[in-house]
Amino acid sequence: MEQDKEYFAFISYSNWDKEWAIWLRHELEHYHLPASFNGCPDVRQNLRPVFCDIDEFVAGNLPEQIQQALVNSQNLIVICSLHSANSVAVNREVEEFVAMGKGDHIFPFIVEGDSPNEYFPKSLDHNIIGSDVNWDGGRDAAFIKLVSGLLKVKFNNLWNRYELEKAEEERRLREQRDMLLRERSTIEQDKEYFVFISYSSLDNDWAIWLRNELEHYHLPASFNGRTDVRDNLRKVFRDRDELSAGPEWDAQVQKALDNMNNLIVICSPHSAESDAVNKEIETFIALGKENHIYPFIVEGDKPKDCFPPALKHSKLGGDIKKDGSPNIAFIKIVAGMLNVSFSELWNRYEIEKAEEERKIREGRDKLLRAQSRFTSKTVLELSQLGNNHLARRLCLETVPTSEHPDYPYTPEAESALRATMKDTVFTFGGHLKYKEIFTVQFSPDGKSVVSASKDNTVKVWDVNTGRLDSQ
């Protein structure tokens, strides 16, 4: 780090909130003021550069480069959460910044928690008003509120323009999309269906999943404006019931195949023996579209086990087993139908899936934390009534454990658990001093503890009373 480099802002955060820190740094460094502020001498025109350290230190003095960055930073943004409230690093960075006389330039950015006692580090003044992604109506509104504080301008002056520019940007994108749809002549958009799914009725669940993925798939933003690539995969034909072969073969399916761009065959031992699937492949080949057939293999190790007779064994497609997951096999099929490289689609697909999963985790954790706080009150009531055994069992359902390591932590649940155990903590004594105890185990019913020592004794203790039962 350059010793004399000046930073507009320093982001202080716990390693548990690293995703938030990376997002916030990107938004700050790429933020553009509304055009109405152009030429205003008293308003900074950008928010760069921003310091965001990669690793959080554990304890002791602040690393030299962190100390220097704090000295060279105009503002301190503290990402506040249950994690940062307990972070030694975040607390020290706030203390140092306040000691430098810059306490008026600290801006909390709250991503988790219901009150300052939960998410503010000890050294952060609880009277400071911060931006809250939950209370301010989402992270975009919280971000603009933070920017307005940093630049000392009114929130509405930024937010109203931000909303207008967002709406204008979306309008331009819609106009460009509509124009491309009208002018696109190289892709046969006039056909009723883009893809036909051929499958055995025994693979109906896979057909439903595949249709849903196809009709809701969105191309990465990097493809916007390309006239040689279709922007959606709709519409998809999936007949509800498998049809029988012969003269009664459904004329509607015949017409659908005739007006189809692509044929996806869900391959399995069931479809390999299906007359209907085989007939649909034969019809599609007879229409001269053999190069637009894509196998989607859901079961079977070899083509002869899962390919219908009419389907050439040399056909390459997506294989959920060999490709490692249904998602990878799906993107391989999409890449083939759109005639683009797999990597162009897969990298963006992984990013978007990760973002979707992050949002789902955030929503789940928020609900679980609310449930944990509610349950903690019940646990305390049970404990006060003397039913500590039931209270402990109930409390263990609301704290992270080896069986549920991803369960979100709440201080209320920890306090409740400690309250249920304060009268039941025993020191088991009885082995010879200085002789190593090499094993301690609970009995299967959880009522006893067995210990073995190098003093050549084995002792059994009562968990509820701490009494030595036998040896």
| CA-CA gap between termini | 64 Å
- Going by CATH, what is the homologous superfamily of the largest domain? Toll/interleukin-1 receptor homology (TIR) domain
| Shape, principal axes of CA atoms | flat
CATH topology of the largest domain: Rossmann fold
Quaternary organisation: single chain
Please tally the β strands and state the result: 14
In N-to-C order, the SSE pattern is EHEHEHHEHEHHEHEHEHHEHEHHHHEEEE
CATH domain class of the largest domain: Alpha Beta
Main sheet characteristics: 5 strands, parallel
Corresponding CATH architecture of the largest domain:
3-Layer(aba) Sandwich
How would you describe this protein?
- The structure is a single chain.
- The strands form three sheets. Strands 2-1-3-4-5 form a five-stranded parallel β-sheet, with helices on both faces. A five-stranded parallel β-sheet has the order 7-6-8-9-10, with helices on both faces.
- It starts with 6 loop residues before the first strand and ends with a strand.
- The protein has 16 helices and 14 strands.
- The protein is of the alpha/beta class and 471 residues long.
- The protein is flat and about 85 Å long.
Provide a short characterization of the protein structure:
42% of the residues lie in helices and 14% in strands.
Topology diagram in text:
Elements: E1 7-12, H1 18-29, E2 50-51, H2 64-71, E3 73-80, H3 82-85, H4 88-99, E4 106-110, H5 116-119, E5 131-132, H6 139-151, H7 155-183, E6 193-198, H8 204-215, E7 236-237, H9 251-258, E8 260-267, H10 269-272, H11 275-286, E9 293-297, H12 303-306, E10 318-319, H13 326-338, H14 342-384, H15 388-395, H16 411-421, E11 437-442, E12 448-453, E13 458-462, E14 468-470
Parallel strand pairs: 1-2, 1-3, 3-4, 4-5, 6-7, 6-8, 8-9, 9-10
Antiparallel strand pairs: 11-12, 12-13, 13-14
Helix pairs in contact: 6-7, 13-14, 14-15, 14-16, 15-16
